[in-house]
Amino acid sequence: MKENLPAEPPRVTQDVTRHVGYLLKRAQAALRGAMDKVLREHGLTVPQYATLELLAMHPGMSNADLARATFVTRQSGNVVLRGLQEAGLITRPATAGHGRARPAHLTGAGHARLAAVQAAVYAIEQRMVGAIPPQRLAALLTDLDRMAAALEE
After folding, report:
1. Which pTM value belongs to this model?
2. Which positions carry the signal peptide feature in this UniProt record (predicted)?
């Protein structure tokens, strides 16, 4: 029953390396470093990889939607899309059919590059979540969603 009690809020005098925010950032930095290393071998960055993953699941997403989903600005998202297009991994129409959106789609080369790197990226995530007892993983994922939602309000 003690698990349902609210956690003691961090105090300024406490060791900052034990604060939730610090530990989340440490985990994120470790994940990003591991992904950077694997993706570099395939000529991709984390935002490029994330964009390929999203376009495989949701073909035709706009730059604005992709930028939001990959946690970059629209300007940075446009740079990512241009790089992927120049590499022949995605296609986008030269002009917008309506409005300003230019829907992006993976090319055959984009699907192949994504397939070539997915197993390595998924192995990193598996290594990370493998450190958590399986019976606690669902609760952790729920808690992380709750934490993000609390800050997005």
Report:
1. 0.83
2. none
